[in-house]
């Protein structure tokens, strides 16, 4: 396992669903984005104190996915992510999916914080940046 995915990383299990499988018997490439979205949302939004500024939300700006090994059903994956960089309005993540000790995919994704009312980019507050620091590697 990549040492970066154990230090300062956020992790959660992902259950492969039967509906994720294509006619070739492996997870359809389009589903991988969902596998990467779930832990990002869990880390940023689904905590007692969400990691987002008041009056703001995140949108996915960019994702780059590398498909390394196939995933079949049934499987339980382990998703790891850590923050690669914190920008003025954005957060970039390194992410990976593991099946046991084998990396099956990795991704780099960037989210941008937007103001709920104006829909414009909203700078990350200093307080938010400090709260994100434990996940920065």
From TrEMBL:
Q: Which InterPro entries match?
A: 4-hydroxybenzoyl-CoA_TE, HotDog_dom_sf
Keywords assigned: Hydrolase
Q: Name one GO molecular function term.
A: fatty acyl-CoA hydrolase activity
| Signal peptide bounds | none
What Pfam families is this protein classified in?
4HBT_2 (PF13279)
Domain of life of the organism encoding this protein: Bacteria
In the record, the note on similarity to other proteins reads:
Belongs to the 4-hydroxybenzoyl-CoA thioesterase family.
Q: Which PANTHER family match?
A: 4-HYDROXYBENZOYL-COA THIOESTERASE FAMILY MEMBER, NOVEL THIOESTERASE SUPERFAMILY DOMAIN AND SAPOSIN A-TYPE DOMAIN CONTAINING PROTEIN (0610012H03RIK)
- The identity of this protein, by name, is Acyl-ACP thioesterase
